[in-house]
Amino acid sequence: MSNGASRLDEVLAGLLDQRQTRNQLRRLTLAPPNAADFSSNSYLSLSSQAAVQKAFLAWLQAAASPSLLGSGGSRLLDGNSSFAEELEKTIAAFHHASAGLLFNSAMDANVGLLGCVPQPGDVVVYDELVHASVHDGMRLSRAGRRVPFGHSRVWDGGDVSSLEGVLRALLGGPDGDLFVSGKRNVFVVVEGVYSMDGDVAPLGDVVECVERCLPLKNGYVIVDEAHSTGVFGDRGRGLVCELGLEDRVWARVLGFGKAMGCSGGIVLCSPTTRSYLINYARTLIYTTAMGFPALASIEATYNFLTNGQAEPLRDHLRLLVRDTHKLLVALCGRHNPPSDLLRVNTQPPRSPIIPVFTCRPRSLATYCQQRGFMVRPIVAPTVPAGKERIRVCLHAGNTMAEVEGLVRAIEAWITECVVAGTTGREGGALDASKGKPKL
């Protein structure tokens, strides 16, 4: 190893040590094979459905493509196929969109869309809790400004950090006449479901606010539906379709790695926007396109949704969400733990994501994992300091017995924490076998 590399490793090691000191060091881990899954984003458990697996294998066996494993290149070179183009049309039609463009992931879709569409002088206004991929796309864009608004706060009412407050300030600012006249554009970016809190965007209000503040139609709403696709709307068409806003939302980004149980993403948009992305989206142009197996998995899962086969799974998931929340609320009512030790929102959740707030997320996650329930700690900087939690993600493949077992494990952890006096913010992980701090 050269001296230069050695010095660089020392710098990197020092930065990692700083993160370790803040108890924020990330590591790759493996989920135990027999643990009950309350962690992944596969809300409909489609990848484990026999009918989906059978359809996927049938596509592979029937494939006439000479390049079965890989696509061979970028979509603009040798990686395109009639199968990919027909799949885009099928997905767009299912979601009541006029066109769609596939990307290797929803992250690539967000980065590609936001990185090239906003023009110089345009502004991107975004919910402060949008996904990291939105931020990466905005950084690459030529937009003149990027302005956050308070999470899910739409109307002003004296709140200048609301969406309306931010738009009013923009219209009244130094370049306000350019936005009032429609010469410059405003892109407003929100998510359908926010992955850390599981809350649903007030999308109807967002669209109405943008249309009211920018009546010349130079306000363009972009919705990241990664966590709402498959879960919301008729047959899983998403939140935009559930609310009937297909013609009032400019673009949607869908991810297939959550409820759809496979991988990839798509931008639903106008045919003109699709052509523009083909010419300017760097995350499409400069990467190898998805191979046939990835496309076939998307086709298989969409057929499963379109044919209504996923409806029993969606019904079961809704019941699990309702009953799990009731059990967690009842647990807090029985023990009345300090709110920083354990707290759940009392309002019934609208998505399969239920955050369980705790100042000792690693301790609680470890305790549950050792008892066969896979949950993950969510800590700063992923969430703001003081809002750490474990995130309970429910799936159609979960059983009520698994849910009850998870709640019993959380209840036992609370009891051990209180008895051991380890109810404050964690400095070390709780020894799940003894209920004592592990230094």
Automatic annotation (TrEMBL):
Residue stretches making up the Aminotransferase class I/classII large domain: 37-410
GO biological process entries: biotin biosynthetic process
Family matches, as Pfam families: Aminotran_1_2
Span of the signal peptide: none
Alphabetized UniProt keyword annotations: Pyridoxal phosphate, Transferase
Cofactor(s), names only, from the UniProt record: pyridoxal 5'-phosphate
Gene3D superfamilies in the record: Aspartate Aminotransferase, domain 1 (3.90.1150.10), Type I PLP-dependent aspartate aminotransferase-like (Major domain) (3.40.640.10)
InterPro entries reported in the protein's UniProt record: Aminotransferase_I/II_large, AON_synthase_class-II, PyrdxlP-dep_Trfase, PyrdxlP-dep_Trfase_major, PyrdxlP-dep_Trfase_small
Keyword set includes rRNA-binding: no
GO MF, one annotated term: pyridoxal phosphate binding
PANTHER family per record: 8-AMINO-7-OXONONANOATE SYNTHASE, CLASS II AMINOTRANSFERASE/8-AMINO-7-OXONONANOATE SYNTHASE
Family, similarity comment: Belongs to the class-II pyridoxal-phosphate-dependent aminotransferase family. BioF subfamily.
Protein name: Pyridoxal phosphate-dependent transferase
Species whose genome carries this gene: Staphylotrichum tortipilum
